Amino acid sequence: MTNHIVLFEPLMPANTGNIARTCAGTDTILDLIKPLGFSVDDKHLKRAGLDYWDKVDINYHESLPAFMNTLGEKDKLYLVSKFANHDYTDRDYTDDDFNYYFMFGKETTGLPEMFMRDNEEKAIRIPQDDTHIRALNLSNTCAIVIYEALRQQSFPNLERTHKYEYDKLK
User: Fold this and answer.
1) How far apart are CA 13 and CA 123, in angstroms?
2) CA atoms within 13 A on the CB side of 12
3) Is-contact 14 39, C-beta < 8 A?
4) Distance CA 132, CA 106 (A)
5) What is the pLDDT of residues 66-104, one digit of tens each?
């Protein structure tokens, strides 16, 4: 079982850098669907997490159809969107026989409408007060969803505690 964060045409280097850092810290694979709105050597990306770039397993996909063609019958895709009818916590991410892909849309427009309509049963939502905001920040949303999946999976291969040379609590 592996977890993937999939970014559809991300625009903001700081978001992608923060997401890459989350992927590095959680052993999550990052899938980037082109076109990207920045260069991967962008200075803002570096500030947000490029120093972790070599620690992240990254797959680049030329388009949404190209990405979809990589999925097999052992892959479960979830579309994270405010337009979904199911909470992200209502899904089970614990079957070891599957790989889990969590797809997030472009910061400005989300996922393509027809793609969403064709895959409505795969859409999940983080509850929010839509009268106050349009959407949560992309990097925060990725972290919320991946940590729910990891919690359900009992945080595989992640340290629950760590001993530091200069432990502030000792």
Assistant:
1) 25
2) 13
3) no
4) 20
5) 999 999 999 999 999 999 999 999 999 999 999 999 999
